[in-house]
Amino acid sequence: MSFCGMMTSRSRANGALPSSDALAVLDRLLWGSAVDDLMLFHMARTEPSRMGFLLAGGKSSRMGSDKAFLDCGGQTLLDRALTVMGAVCDRVAIVGDPARFARCEFPKQGSVVADIFPGCGPLAGIHAALVHSSAPLNLMLAVDMPFVSGELLAFLFAAAESTDATITVPRTSRGLQPLCAVYRRDFCTIAEQALRAGKYKVDAAFLGVTVRVIEESELAAAGFSQQTFFNVNTPQDRLDALSK
Questions:
Q1: Which residues of 117-152 are buried (b: 16+ CB within 10 A; e: fewer)?
Q2: CA distance 181 to 172
Q3: Residue pLDDT, tens place only, 43-91
Q4: How many Å apart are CA 236 and CA 234, to the nearest integer?
Q5: Dist CA 137 CA 127 (whole Å)
Q6: What is the DSSP code (8-state) at residue 71?
Q7: Which of 207, 70, 206 shows the shortest CA–CA distance to 126?
Q8: What is the Cα–Cα distance from 138 to 231, expressed in whole angstroms?
Q9: Which of 91, 85, 93 is nearest to 151 (CA)?
Q10: Which among 135, 68, 125 has a CA at the least distance from the CA of 102?
Q11: Helix or strand or coil: residue 12?
């Protein structure tokens, strides 16, 4: 029996019927609560918890041509990265010039995000991504890393989910890998402060936040080598990647 029906039965037992106005108020209260619960449930289902941002705004000056569209083993670096990210992210977006990527097909509801601070390097790309993000965890991946796998990205997300740190970043013998890392949205403020101060180095901005560093030994124990983070910056790098 509905709540209104129960109220009507009780009123009858007491010899009085509730007024139509009273029943209308009860109906509004009950249905309003149900609608609110439904909206919260829908939002929980539609709001992404993991977003992936492909950083592809570089000039590719050392390569001599646009790295994003460079063929590497039968697939462009762009297409490969989007596919790998799409396997572990709720949504995927490209950070770069919208005109360059207007015809791109995304594996998941994606878009192209332009830098708010153009010409300021990867930190500007990370900042623009976080400004546009609605997810608590945000993967940043450079487009020129052909050996990054879905397994590695899932590993990074799992590590990020187990900590409250603002950034979860791998470290190899070559140093931190901030362009294959997971960021929480509160880094956006730190990034903007650095950009406005003319400080464009990504890992220098880490000083103001908590960081979960995944050391090389931890990566190795999980089956990931330093080669995973190989960057294709020059024509020789491309040849080296194709030979591996």
A1: beebbbbbbbbbbbebbebbbbbbbbbbbbbbeeeb
A2: 13
A3: 444 678 999 999 996 655 455 556 887 776 778 999 999 999 999 999 9
A4: 5
A5: 14
A6: B
A7: 206
A8: 21
A9: 85
A10: 68
A11: helix
List, in sequence order, every residue forming a beta bridge with 30; answer none if it has no partner.
none
Beta carbons of 55 and 126 less than 8 angstroms apart: yes
Do the Cβ atoms of 232 and 238 come closer than 8 Å? Answer: yes
Cα(117)–Cα(188) distance, integer angstroms: 13
Within 47-114, where are the H helices? 77-86
Q: Hey, what are 192's tokens? A: 């903007």
Nearest to 208 by CA among 162, 167, 159: 167
What gap in Å lies between CA 67 and CA 58, rounded to an integer? 8
Task: Evaluate whether 77 touches 143 at the Cβ level (below 8 Å).
Answer: yes
Domains of the chain with CATH codes: 3-45 (no CATH), 48-243 (3.90.550.10)
Backbone angles phi, psi at 16, to 5 degrees: -140, 145
Check residue 76 and report its DSSP letter: B
What's the whole-model pTM score?
0.77
Backbone angles phi, psi at 137, to 5 degrees: -115, 130
The torsion region of residue 119 among left (phi > 0), alpha (psi -120 to 50) and beta comes to left
Token output for 235: 């024509």
CA pair distance 93, 50, nearest whole angstrom: 12
Over the stretch 144-174, which tens digit does the pLDDT of each residue have?
Answer: 999 999 999 999 999 999 999 999 999 999 9
* Spatial separation of the C-alpha atoms in residues 208 and 223, rounded to whole Å: 31
